[in-house]
Amino acid sequence: MTTGNPTSGEPVVLLSDERAVIDILGKSILGLWDTVNNLTRLRPTKRERYRVTIFGSARVEPTHWVYGAVRDTAAELTRLGCDIVTGGGPGLMQAANEGVKLADPDGTHQKSVGIRVELPFEQDVNAFVTEAFEHKTFFTRLQHFVLVSDAFIVTPGGIGTVLETLMVWQLLQVRHLHDVPLILAGHFWDGLLDWAKAAMLKPDSPLISPEDLKIPQILPDGPSIVNAIREHHKQWKARQG
User: Fold this and answer.
1) Same structural domain for residues 134 and 158?
2) Which one of 121, 155, 231, 240 has the lowest number of neighbouring Cβ atoms within 10 Å?
Protein backbone atom coordinates (compact mmCIF):
# COMPACT_ATOMS: atom_id res chain seq x y z
CA MET A 1 0.00 0.00 0.00
CA THR A 2 1.27 3.47 -0.85
CA THR A 3 0.02 6.94 -0.05
CA GLY A 4 1.00 10.30 -1.45
CA ASN A 5 4.11 12.06 -0.19
CA PRO A 6 3.00 15.58 0.75
CA THR A 7 6.46 17.07 0.07
CA SER A 8 7.02 15.69 -3.43
CA GLY A 9 3.68 14.40 -4.62
CA GLU A 10 5.27 11.03 -5.43
CA PRO A 11 3.86 7.83 -3.97
CA VAL A 12 5.28 6.65 -0.66
CA VAL A 13 7.08 3.31 -0.80
CA LEU A 14 6.74 1.02 2.18
CA LEU A 15 9.85 -0.82 3.36
CA SER A 16 7.97 -4.08 2.96
CA ASP A 17 7.85 -3.49 -0.81
CA GLU A 18 11.28 -4.98 -1.47
CA ARG A 19 11.30 -4.52 -5.23
CA ALA A 20 10.40 -0.83 -5.00
CA VAL A 21 12.98 -0.26 -2.24
CA ILE A 22 15.72 -1.85 -4.35
CA ASP A 23 14.68 0.32 -7.30
CA ILE A 24 14.88 3.50 -5.21
CA LEU A 25 18.27 2.52 -3.78
CA GLY A 26 19.66 1.82 -7.25
CA LYS A 27 18.44 5.12 -8.65
CA SER A 28 19.72 6.99 -5.60
CA ILE A 29 23.20 5.48 -5.94
CA LEU A 30 23.30 6.47 -9.61
CA GLY A 31 22.26 9.96 -8.58
CA LEU A 32 25.08 10.13 -6.05
CA TRP A 33 27.58 9.09 -8.73
CA ASP A 34 26.27 11.85 -10.98
CA THR A 35 26.79 14.33 -8.15
CA VAL A 36 30.36 13.12 -7.58
CA ASN A 37 31.10 13.31 -11.31
CA ASN A 38 29.85 16.88 -11.42
CA LEU A 39 31.96 17.84 -8.41
CA THR A 40 35.10 16.36 -9.98
CA ARG A 41 34.65 18.66 -12.98
CA LEU A 42 35.66 21.59 -10.78
CA ARG A 43 39.31 22.58 -11.16
CA PRO A 44 41.42 25.44 -9.81
CA THR A 45 42.14 28.17 -12.33
CA LYS A 46 45.85 27.63 -11.74
CA ARG A 47 47.48 24.51 -10.35
CA GLU A 48 50.28 25.32 -7.97
CA ARG A 49 51.87 21.88 -7.73
CA TYR A 50 53.03 19.35 -10.30
CA ARG A 51 52.39 15.83 -9.07
CA VAL A 52 53.86 12.58 -10.32
CA THR A 53 52.17 9.35 -9.28
CA ILE A 54 54.42 6.31 -9.02
CA PHE A 55 52.72 2.91 -9.08
CA GLY A 56 54.52 -0.28 -8.05
CA SER A 57 54.63 -3.47 -6.03
CA ALA A 58 54.10 -3.58 -2.28
CA ARG A 59 56.25 -6.74 -2.06
CA VAL A 60 59.69 -5.51 -3.08
CA GLU A 61 62.12 -5.40 -0.16
CA PRO A 62 64.39 -2.39 0.52
CA THR A 63 67.42 -4.58 -0.20
CA HIS A 64 66.34 -5.18 -3.82
CA TRP A 65 68.07 -3.09 -6.48
CA VAL A 66 64.73 -1.98 -7.93
CA TYR A 67 63.85 -0.38 -4.59
CA GLY A 68 66.97 1.77 -4.75
CA ALA A 69 66.35 2.69 -8.38
CA VAL A 70 62.79 3.84 -7.64
CA ARG A 71 63.93 5.75 -4.55
CA ASP A 72 66.67 7.56 -6.47
CA THR A 73 64.37 8.39 -9.38
CA ALA A 74 61.78 9.84 -6.99
CA ALA A 75 64.53 11.88 -5.33
CA GLU A 76 65.55 13.38 -8.68
CA LEU A 77 61.93 14.20 -9.50
CA THR A 78 61.60 15.88 -6.11
CA ARG A 79 64.62 18.04 -6.90
CA LEU A 80 62.89 19.05 -10.13
CA GLY A 81 60.00 20.42 -8.09
CA CYS A 82 57.58 17.50 -8.34
CA ASP A 83 55.36 16.21 -5.57
CA ILE A 84 55.39 12.42 -5.40
CA VAL A 85 52.15 10.46 -5.02
CA THR A 86 51.97 6.73 -4.27
CA GLY A 87 49.58 4.19 -2.84
CA GLY A 88 51.17 4.84 0.54
CA GLY A 89 52.07 1.22 1.20
CA PRO A 90 55.35 -0.70 1.51
CA GLY A 91 57.65 -1.91 -1.25
CA LEU A 92 58.15 0.34 -4.25
CA MET A 93 55.52 2.76 -2.97
CA GLN A 94 57.66 3.28 0.12
CA ALA A 95 60.76 3.60 -2.07
CA ALA A 96 59.19 6.50 -3.96
CA ASN A 97 58.08 8.25 -0.78
CA GLU A 98 61.54 7.69 0.70
CA GLY A 99 63.03 9.42 -2.33
CA VAL A 100 61.18 12.60 -1.38
CA LYS A 101 62.68 12.42 2.11
CA LEU A 102 66.11 11.88 0.63
CA ALA A 103 65.89 14.98 -1.58
CA ASP A 104 63.90 17.20 0.77
CA PRO A 105 64.73 16.05 4.34
CA ASP A 106 62.79 18.83 6.05
CA GLY A 107 59.75 18.48 3.81
CA THR A 108 59.70 22.22 3.21
CA HIS A 109 59.44 22.17 -0.58
CA GLN A 110 57.71 19.11 -1.97
CA LYS A 111 55.00 16.77 -0.70
CA SER A 112 55.18 13.02 -0.23
CA VAL A 113 51.60 11.84 -0.68
CA GLY A 114 50.07 8.45 0.06
CA ILE A 115 46.62 7.47 -1.21
CA ARG A 116 45.90 4.16 0.44
CA VAL A 117 43.02 1.72 0.57
CA GLU A 118 41.92 -0.23 3.62
CA LEU A 119 43.42 -3.73 3.46
CA PRO A 120 43.64 -6.30 6.26
CA PHE A 121 47.33 -6.96 5.53
CA GLU A 122 48.46 -3.31 5.13
CA GLN A 123 47.58 -1.45 8.29
CA ASP A 124 49.31 1.92 7.99
CA VAL A 125 50.90 4.23 5.48
CA ASN A 126 54.65 3.95 5.18
CA ALA A 127 56.82 6.15 7.37
CA PHE A 128 57.87 8.47 4.53
CA VAL A 129 54.37 9.73 3.68
CA THR A 130 53.73 13.28 4.90
CA GLU A 131 50.21 13.72 3.51
CA ALA A 132 47.89 10.71 3.65
CA PHE A 133 44.43 9.96 2.28
CA GLU A 134 42.48 6.79 2.97
CA HIS A 135 39.81 5.11 0.87
CA LYS A 136 37.54 2.18 1.59
CA THR A 137 37.37 1.01 -2.04
CA PHE A 138 39.82 0.69 -4.91
CA PHE A 139 37.38 2.51 -7.17
CA THR A 140 37.42 5.81 -5.29
CA ARG A 141 41.14 5.49 -4.72
CA LEU A 142 41.79 5.12 -8.45
CA GLN A 143 39.65 8.18 -9.12
CA HIS A 144 41.70 10.12 -6.55
CA PHE A 145 44.95 9.23 -8.33
CA VAL A 146 43.52 10.48 -11.61
CA LEU A 147 42.28 13.75 -10.14
CA VAL A 148 45.60 14.79 -8.58
CA SER A 149 48.20 13.49 -11.04
CA ASP A 150 50.01 15.29 -13.85
CA ALA A 151 52.10 12.25 -14.85
CA PHE A 152 52.22 8.53 -14.09
CA ILE A 153 55.24 6.27 -13.74
CA VAL A 154 54.68 2.53 -13.51
CA THR A 155 57.41 0.46 -11.86
CA PRO A 156 57.38 -3.35 -11.54
CA GLY A 157 54.27 -4.65 -9.84
CA GLY A 158 51.53 -7.24 -9.71
CA ILE A 159 47.80 -7.32 -10.27
CA GLY A 160 47.11 -4.03 -8.47
CA THR A 161 49.74 -2.24 -10.52
CA VAL A 162 48.34 -3.72 -13.73
CA LEU A 163 44.86 -2.51 -12.74
CA GLU A 164 46.16 1.02 -12.16
CA THR A 165 48.11 1.02 -15.41
CA LEU A 166 45.23 -0.20 -17.58
CA MET A 167 42.84 2.30 -16.02
CA VAL A 168 45.11 5.25 -16.86
CA TRP A 169 45.81 3.78 -20.30
CA GLN A 170 42.10 3.55 -21.09
CA LEU A 171 41.34 7.05 -19.80
CA LEU A 172 44.02 8.38 -22.14
CA GLN A 173 42.68 6.22 -24.98
CA VAL A 174 39.15 7.64 -24.70
CA ARG A 175 40.51 11.14 -24.01
CA HIS A 176 39.12 11.46 -20.53
CA LEU A 177 42.72 12.38 -19.70
CA HIS A 178 44.77 14.70 -21.89
CA ASP A 179 48.50 15.40 -22.07
CA VAL A 180 49.36 13.15 -19.13
CA PRO A 181 52.46 10.96 -19.60
CA LEU A 182 52.09 7.26 -18.84
CA ILE A 183 55.64 5.96 -18.46
CA LEU A 184 56.42 2.27 -17.98
CA ALA A 185 59.74 1.94 -16.20
CA GLY A 186 62.27 -0.53 -17.53
CA HIS A 187 61.71 -3.63 -19.63
CA PHE A 188 59.50 -5.34 -17.04
CA TRP A 189 56.45 -4.20 -19.02
CA ASP A 190 57.64 -5.22 -22.50
CA GLY A 191 55.57 -8.39 -22.29
CA LEU A 192 52.37 -6.46 -21.59
CA LEU A 193 52.72 -4.41 -24.76
CA ASP A 194 53.84 -7.45 -26.76
CA TRP A 195 50.72 -9.30 -25.61
CA ALA A 196 48.45 -6.35 -26.41
CA LYS A 197 49.91 -6.10 -29.90
CA ALA A 198 49.67 -9.84 -30.58
CA ALA A 199 46.23 -10.41 -29.06
CA MET A 200 44.42 -7.13 -29.73
CA LEU A 201 45.93 -5.93 -32.99
CA LYS A 202 45.46 -8.97 -35.20
CA PRO A 203 45.20 -7.91 -38.85
CA ASP A 204 42.01 -9.88 -39.45
CA SER A 205 40.16 -8.72 -36.31
CA PRO A 206 41.78 -5.74 -34.57
CA LEU A 207 40.33 -4.85 -31.18
CA ILE A 208 42.33 -1.64 -30.72
CA SER A 209 43.93 0.98 -32.94
CA PRO A 210 47.69 1.08 -33.58
CA GLU A 211 47.73 4.51 -31.91
CA ASP A 212 46.52 2.94 -28.66
CA LEU A 213 49.82 1.09 -28.30
CA LYS A 214 51.69 4.39 -28.48
CA ILE A 215 50.01 5.77 -25.36
CA PRO A 216 52.27 4.11 -22.77
CA GLN A 217 55.94 4.96 -23.18
CA ILE A 218 58.54 2.42 -22.08
CA LEU A 219 61.73 4.08 -20.82
CA PRO A 220 64.73 2.00 -19.79
CA ASP A 221 66.01 3.68 -16.64
CA GLY A 222 65.77 6.46 -14.08
CA PRO A 223 67.68 9.14 -16.04
CA SER A 224 65.51 8.73 -19.13
CA ILE A 225 62.37 8.89 -16.99
CA VAL A 226 63.58 12.03 -15.22
CA ASN A 227 64.37 13.67 -18.58
CA ALA A 228 60.89 12.90 -19.90
CA ILE A 229 59.23 14.31 -16.79
CA ARG A 230 61.51 17.36 -16.90
CA GLU A 231 60.29 18.21 -20.40
CA HIS A 232 56.65 17.69 -19.50
CA HIS A 233 57.10 19.72 -16.32
CA LYS A 234 58.45 22.64 -18.39
CA GLN A 235 55.40 22.50 -20.65
CA TRP A 236 53.11 22.31 -17.61
CA LYS A 237 54.72 25.38 -16.04
CA ALA A 238 54.37 27.31 -19.30
CA ARG A 239 50.65 26.54 -19.39
CA GLN A 240 50.26 27.72 -15.80
CA GLY A 241 51.61 31.12 -16.77
Assistant:
1) yes
2) 121
